[in-house]
Amino acid sequence: MGLNVNFHAQELQFARRSNLPKITTQARQTFIPYNYGWLRNLQKYGGRLTPPPYDFSKITCPVYIFYGENDLLTVPQDVAWLADKLGNLKESIRVDHALYNHFDFLWATDNNVILYDPIISRLPSAV
Known about the structure:
Blueprint lengths: L4 H8 L7 H10 L8 H7 L18 E5 L8 H10 L3 E6 L9 H4 L3 H12 L5
Parallel strand pairs: 1-2
Helix pairs in contact: 2-4
InterPro entries: AB_hydrolase_fold
Protein name: Gastric triacylglycerol lipase
């Protein structure tokens, strides 16, 4: 990977570490929009105290999931949970690099080989 370890540490400072376990645990049970707190939720979500779960049946386009094994924000079990919920999942693909993580999707210097080529190979022909 072409990433600097210090970059990861700096980026993670933006996410409160105390929230990371909640996000992971919650994602295995449901997948919901941002929770603004009960008062703002009432306004934002049509009188609901909590955000409503996403309705995966509304996703009708083909879906390909690419994920990394070393992700601090999403674990493979959460990816499998999501894959199970999607009705039009075509494929769930683990990026073929043991240290690939969330930030590598944007910043890895070898994405052209380990991510973009596999994505492009799955696109339908434009002909």
